[in-house]
Every structure is written in structure tokens, then in C-alpha cells.
Design goal:
The structure holds two protein chains of two kinds. Chain A has ten helices and no strands. By secondary structure, chain A is an all-alpha fold. Chain A starts with 6 loop residues before the first helix and ends in a 6-residue tail after the last helix. Chain B has seven helices and ten strands. Chain B has a six-stranded mixed sheet with strand order 6-7-8-3-9-10, with helices on both faces. Chain B has a four-stranded antiparallel sheet with strand order 2-1-4-5, with helices on one face. In chain B, helix 2 packs across helix 3 and helix 3 packs across helix 4. Classes of the chains: A mainly alpha, B alpha/beta. Chains A and B meet through helix 7 and helix 8 of A and helix 2 of B.
């Protein structure tokens, strides 16, 4: 397959990352920047190693909440998007509202979720799902709409039922669009989980990454904050990579157009 | 085993434009009729009306099978468009099986019939391939296979080979001719190609535009229809005769 990633695709960004880390290390030492303002990569690495036990558990908790939020967003988004296209009236009346909801900043909603669902996993998962669901809805709606009008006519010619048209034409035609939406949702689900943990992460016996960030910020343990942020990025990247992998397999039938 | 089609006073407007204005046309069972005319003369609209894709404002279209009137939906009509209209995520076989699938035919049976249709269009080896892996000519063959998989009584062809290169077009013309000889369905072909119309049709109807009307009916009498006959005197005489009528139709409507 032509879309396979070659070693150059891995090497080039790796070189960039290493170069940036070296530059950062050099800059911190050269300008003698205090650790609480900007720790050097070595100090972050040290904090990562020292706190490895709790940080690993924190990462797992955040990853769990993100996967749960993403899964809920994927299922709900595809279902809601499909329902919206069932009738033109629903699509006109409700779809613009979902776009509007998307504009409401999550940091404003997350405290409300904490009030409604209490501290702990449910509020964090809900926060993750709430941000991730909208791109899935939007991509499902536009994907279902994207079916070739000529193919629609063909289905009309064959007297296809609404259900047949949905399963055999609109849903398959929507796959590339839905996959794009799911990729966006994977990144947003991580953000949603972390923001959720800022306001509702202090239930349970293990502090998730968002909580680690908040508490260490207060105590100026900036190196640990950086470590937690890096781990949060790893969580987001891993989920994104998994979704991309699965979707490229699903898309094999559709490429190249 | 095929249907005859009677078009009476077919009238269709798109906004202010009268595309069809009381046109009448008969197509006998098993007959192959070509409609030829300048762009926008309403021949495609007429064909779509026959296929039930376009509702007429006035007039009627009647279908008869073995002398008995039938509804359009029961007449066994099948369409072949200029674009193959294959679903890109389905293999050739699954595309051909689609009309049967939508009609509720069991899997084993529809796969058998789809393979047979691909075989008849001589693209059996493309069965498992996706549309984008096929050449333009092969895609069209698959689309034709899908059109005949339902064993239609009448085939409605809307410039089916218009987007293909000349050589492929000749090949598919011969394929279509052979198919029609074997199965004797009724056929209406909309085309811009005069040689194609003469090569395939028993009768060529030349239409003038706005509103569409028949300005000439050319009955094609050829001793044989094969590659050699495409350059025969009789063939050329038919093409000339239609060309003259077409020319008069265009100039007449411009005046």
C-alpha cells in the first residue's frame, strides 16, 4: 500500500524533537532560568523518573477516561448524526444548534458537569465525551449527505427502501467523512478529559494527570507539571494513532478515489 | 417476451422552458430505436420519462407485455447511464448484484446471477475488483451487466458509451448488438453518434429541439451489421440521410 509510513517519516520528526530538546536544555542553562519557571528537559526527565509510580497510574486513569469519553462520543455522534438526517425538518431545526453548542467553551461547561455528576470518573468521562461528540455529529451529517446524487437516483430506480438506502448507500458513503471526524474527536477527547480532571478529578484514590497538573502547579513543582503534560500528550497521541490506524484499514476500500 | 412502449402527447416543462410538447412515439416489442438530436432537444428527458425518473406534465406512456397493459414498475425496465454509477466501495460483482439485493433476492442466487451477467458482458475476471481498479471500458461493461442482471424487458440507454474512446466504444457497440440479438429486449438509445445509431438501431428518430418533435424517421436496412458494414455504402447513405435531417432541424429551429 502506498500510504505505509516509511522510516524517513519517523526519523525526520525524531530529529526535530531531539534538536528542540537540545536547544531547550542549552537555553535554560545559558540564561540560568529558575526551575520553577522553566525546568530543563533533564529536570523534567528526572521528575518523570522519580514520580514514575503515581504518574503511571495517573496516565492510566486519564487514558481510561479518554477512551471511555471517545467511545461514548463516537457511538452517540454517529447515532445522533444519523437521526438528524432522517428528516429534513430535524436537520434544519437541530443541526445548526449542534454547531452553536460546539462554540461553547468546555472550560465553562466542565464545572457544571462536576456539579451535576459529582467529583470523579463520570464527570471526567462526560467532559471528554461532550467535546468529542460534536465533530462526530458534524462529520456524520455531512458524510451521510455526501452520497452521490446519481447513485441516489439509481437507488430510487431500484425502489430501494429508506433503510436500504441508509445501509447500502449513505452509511458507506459517509465512512471517509466519519473517520475524519473520529480523528478530530480523538484529540478533543483527551483535552476534554484533562479539563474535566481540573475541576472534577479529585474523587478516587489515584489522582489523574489533570489533577497532578493542578496540584503541582500550586506548589510550583513545574518539572512534574511538565512531566504530566508530556504524558497527557502521549495519551492523546496514542489514541489518535490507534484511531488513524483503524481508520486507514477501514478506508482501504475508498482510496484512491 | 419484451414490452412495447407507446408515448402519447408527452409534455414536460422545466420552469418556462417547454422541453417536451406533445411528442408521440411508438416502440414495438423487441425493437431497437435510437433517438438522435442536438443537445437540449429533450431526448434524455423523454428517455427518463419512459423510465419513470421524470414525471410528465401531460400525456401518457403505456407499456404492453404480450398485448396486455402493464404498469411502468412491472414492465421490467432497466437503465444504463452515461456514467457507470458504480458504488466505489463495492466489488464489480457486488455492484452487479445490487438491484437483486435491493429486490430481496437470496445471496447465493444473486451472486450466481451477477456472475452470469458479468460473464455475458465478458468481464467475469473483474468480479472481485473494485471500480477504481478497472478501466473506463470495463467499468461500463460492469454497469451494463448490472443493467441486464434483472433480465429486463426493455433497456433504456442514455448515451451509455459517450465518455469512452472510439475503439472501446466500437467494442461495446458490438457487445450491445450481440446482446440485443440474443435476448430481444426492447431498446431505446439516446446518442450523439450518428454511426452508433445506424449501427445499432432498427429505427432512428431524429428530434428537433424546443419543443422536441420528430423531424425524420429513418428505418435502417443493412444486410449485415459487423465491422465491415460500418464502411458500406448503405451504412454511409443512412448516416448521410440522418445528418441532413439533423442539419435542417438545427438550422430550422435557429430561424
Amino acid at each position: 500500500m502506498s500510504s505505509r509510513i516509511g522510516w524517513r517519516d519517523v526519523l525526520a520528526p525524531s530529529i526535530t524533537v531531539v534538536a528542540l530538546l537540545v536547544l531547550w536544555e542549552v537555553a535554560v542553562r545559558a540564561f540560568a532560568i529558575p526551575e520553577y519557571l522553566l525546568p530543563s528537559p533533564r529536570q523534567v526527565a528526572a521528575a518523570l523518573w522519580e514520580g514514575r509510580g503515581p504518574l503511571a497510574l495517573a496516565t492510566l486513569r486519564t487514558a481510561g477516561a479518554t477512551v471511555a469519553g471517545f467511545a461514548i462520543a463516537a457511538v452517540m455522534g454517529i447515532a445522533l448524526g444519523s437521526v438528524l438526517t432522517l428528516s429534513r425538518w430535524l436537520e434544519r431545526g437541530v443541526y445548526p444548534l449542534t454547531l452553536l453548542f460546539q462554540m461553547v467553551p468546555l472550560v465553562a461547561i466542565a464545572p457544571l458537569l462536576a456539579i451535576w455528576l459529582g467529583n470523579g470518573a463520570p464527570a471526567v468521562i462526560a467532559s471528554s465525551a461532550v467535546v468529542a461528540v460534536f465533530p462526530v455529529i458534524a462529520s456524520t451529517v455531512s458524510g451521510l449527505r455526501s452520497a452521490d446524487p446519481l447513485a441516489r437516483e439509481l437507488f430510487r430506480l431500484y425502489n430501494a427502501s429508506r433503510w436500504q438506502r441508509w445501509t447500502r448507500l449513505e452509511l458507506p458513503a459517509a465512512v471517509p467523512s466519519v473517520v475524519t471526524g473520529l480523528r478530530v474527536a480523538a484529540g478533543l477527547a483527551t483535552i476534554g478529559a484533562i479539563v474535566g480532571e481540573f475541576v472534577a478529578g479529585f474523587g478516587g484514590d489515584v489522582a489523574p494527570l489533570g489533577m497532578v497538573i493542578v496540584t503541582n502547579l500550586r506548589e510550583f513543582h513545574t518539572d512534574t507539571v511538565f512531566a504530566a503534560v508530556a504524558l497527557a500528550a502521549v495519551v492523546g497521541f496514542t489514541i489518535y494513532a490507534l484511531v488513524s490506524l483503524v481508520s486507514s484499514l477501514a478506508l482501504a476500500r475508498y482510496l484512491p478515489r | 417476451m419484451s414490452v412495447s412502449i407507446e408515448i402519447r402527447n408527452a409534455t414536460k416543462r422545466f420552469g418556462e422552458v417547454r422541453v417536451l410538447d406533445g411528442i408521440s412515439l411508438d416502440v414495438a416489442a423487441g425493437e431497437f430505436v435510437a433517438l438522435i438530436g442536438p443537445s437540449g432537444c429533450g431526448k434524455t428527458t423523454l428517455l427518463r420519462a419512459v423510465g419513470g425518473l421524470e414525471a410528465l406534465d401531460a400525456g401518457s406512456i403505456a407499456y404492453r407485455a404480450d398485448g396486455a397493459a402493464t404498469a411502468a414498475s412491472a414492465a421490467g425496465l432497466s437503465f444504463c447511464f452515461q456514467e457507470p454509477r458504480l458504488l466505489p466501495w463495492r466489488s464489480a460483482l457486488d455492484n452487479v448484484a445490487l438491484p437483486l439485493e435491493l429486490a430481496g433476492v437470496a445471496t447465493a442466487e444473486r451472486v450466481r446471477q451477477a456472475r452470469e451477467a458479468l460473464d455475458r458482458m465478458r468481464v467475469a475476471d473483474a468480479a472481485e475488483r473494485l471500480p477504481h481498479e478497472l478501466s473506463g471500458g470495463m467499468r461500463m461493461r460492469v454497469a451494463m451487466a448490472r443493467a441486464i442482471v434483472t433480465k429486463p424487458q426493455a433497456l433504456l440507454l442514455d448515451e451509455p458509451f459517450g465518455a469512452l474512446d472510439e475503439v472501446t466504444r466500437y467494442e461495446l457497440d458490438e457487445e450491445l448488438l450481440a446482446l440485443h440479438r440474443r435476448e430481444r429486449f426492447t431498446a431505446i438509445l439516446v446518442t450523439h453518434s450518428l454511426p452508433e445509431a445506424v449501427f445499432l438501431a432498427d429505427r432512428v428518430e431524429v428530434l428537433a429541439p424546443r419543443p422536441a418533435r420528430v423531424v425524420k424517421t429513418e428505418r435502417v436496412a443493412l444486410a449485415a451489421r459487423d465491422d465491415a458494414s460500418r464502411t458500406s455504402d448503405a451504412f454511409n447513405a443512412h448516416v448521410r440521410s440522418i445528418s441532413d435531417a439533423l442539419h435542417r432541424a438545427i438550422c430550422g429551429s435557429a430561424a
